[in-house]
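[job 4417] fold queue: 2 targets
>>> target A
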Amino acid sequence: MNNQGGNAALKVLCTNGLKSVFLEIGDELTRSTGTVFSADYGSTKKFTDDIAAASEAPDIVILTDEAIDTLIAKGKLAKSRIDLARSFIGIAVRKGTPRPDISSLPAFVATLRATRAISRSRVGQSGLHIEALLKRLGLAEELGPKITAYDGRAAHACAEGETDLAIQQISELMPVAGLDIVGPLPDEIQKVTIFSAGIGAMTRNRAAAEKFIAYVKDPARAPVLRSNGLEPA
């Protein structure tokens, strides 16, 4: 990596939950800040494990707030967490198919029982939450056979007809063509995830990383976050 002021090339690891945001704002971010970056997208769990095992973290890491705190505690990230966005778990169906009732916990459970096949993420926050939720409700054995966990394509599986309903972060459902967003999980079973940024403890591009994060955190980005199913943190 170079270290020439605003032209530093940053390495970014980012949760899939914010991928659609960066695909939308990336070019303008570079034009406005002069900061060039290369981003890889994936699950919070995978990136947390990878960074914990590596000798050095990338310049910027954007994961859940808990994951950022964990990596700060391990000395991989600088001691400053910047919260960027709040994310909600939602339901989607294949475009043009009836939208089921998920307005309450009983309605949500009835919808799951009536659905032929359901997709969720395997290691993403939404998938882990649903897995734990069904166990807590005593429904894991009953509903487990119809739920398939996917690595990175739970939404696409629904859009392509492999399943009839997808449960995932709304920000990950929205960019997928061929889906209709039904809405968020009922409040009593919703899990709000905070996506946060951290700067690599050993980065040689700290000033550029701070400029990058400040651009994303700026209130002017709020409409972009909302149009991608997120709320500013």
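>>> target B
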Amino acid sequence: MSRKVLFIQPPLTLEERYGKLAEGGSSAPPLGIAQVAAVIRESRDYDVGLLDAAALNLTIEETLGRIRSFNPDIIGITAVTPSIYKASLLAKAIRKENPEGPIIIGGPHVTAVPEETLRMYPEFDFGVVGEGEDTILELLSAMRGERKLQDVKGILFREEDGRVRMTPRRPFITDMDRLPFPAWDLLPDLDTYYRPPIFSVKKLPSTSLVTTRGCPGKCTFCDTSVFGQRVRGFSPEYVMSMITKLHDEYGIRDILFDDDCAPLLKSRFERILDMLAGSGLDLSWSCNARINNVTPELLKKMKRAGCWQIAYGIESGSQKILDFYKKGITVRQIEDALEWTKDAGIMTKGFFMIGNPLETIETMEETIRFARRVRLDDFQVTSFTPLPGSGVYPVAAQYGSFDNDYRKMNLWNIVFVPNGLTKDDIERYSKKAFRQFYFRPSVVLSYMRRIYSWRHFTELMKGFKSLLKFLSSKGGTDGSA
């Protein structure tokens, strides 16, 4: 009889992810564990289940009820930094009911701080570090006594004396086409239970898709420990097969390519553009890109292939701040890329952060003026957050006060305040940035023109209500002073 393995995304509410901006928040399918679940299922040695408690808006107790129904022999939980605490609470609750069943923790948080995670949360028996597809297969094999734990690369486990032992890192997967498609069928209905950012969507139903792994950037605020800095991608043919499956079997009509930077691996990307342009699919799509990886010619080709929006990590309008972040770009390059994108007929979105170690009142003002001046259709500003695994994480306390509470590290709560500023300063300028960008007639009119359906309208109203709630609140996005 095959053993039963259940992969879980732990409960985490929109309020815990977005604070007072929860009504305008979004949620995406957990493609990481969907991919791992597909690999385990393909081995035919296990009965595999997947429970996305966050998407289903379950409590810990309700999640336990679903677990009891599946009755797994082994449980794997994934967690990012803001969800690691809830993952630990769930693991404790599972442990009370089943003291012997192995519990594995994987995902970005344990990869960023592996030994610390298992020491802090003794309810986890094993940790999977980095890409999990090959590692989890070998770990399950070791649990069956078919190999030694110490011979499995990329894991953490506890010795008999309780000490945490970590094996050498596993090399990154280079032939990504050997992986099966994510197990979308094991997830809740993509259109019903997942909430894309409504104005990063042109048609509905919409979903996200990741086609590359790795980012060559050296940004001080980023954690690249899961996928590394060498970029690898599924082949164009594989990507088109995934898109076609989503289109034909799940009714998807809009895709957000949620790669760190879609245009990397340029010849591969241009081949995908050619295939999209000639596919005849009823499909629109958007993507993320780096400022210095686009050209006017490429952008025109992207437009012909159906691209309607590009989101850029701009971060700041101050060159001093950009240099501190090690973005490798200039303010002029940002201006040019946005001009080229708009000229190609593609809408632009800019991601910004304020409150970094070198931030001042003057640089925050500079960023707000910049965001209003350049050709941006959408804007988002979050609080600078020294995430585990990032270059700035070990030294953040040298630059200011750092509340290293994982539960608050969702990019919206203010957990870091640089020397020379107060938490109130960061909150005030965050609100000012939102207010001055969005409360302009041209931006309001642009949003009204982009209402494609009644659902777009209702989601826009939710987002607007959420923004007003945030702007009128006292204290940070988490309600703190």
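[job 4417] complete. Note on B: DSSP finds 17 helices and 17 strands in the chain.
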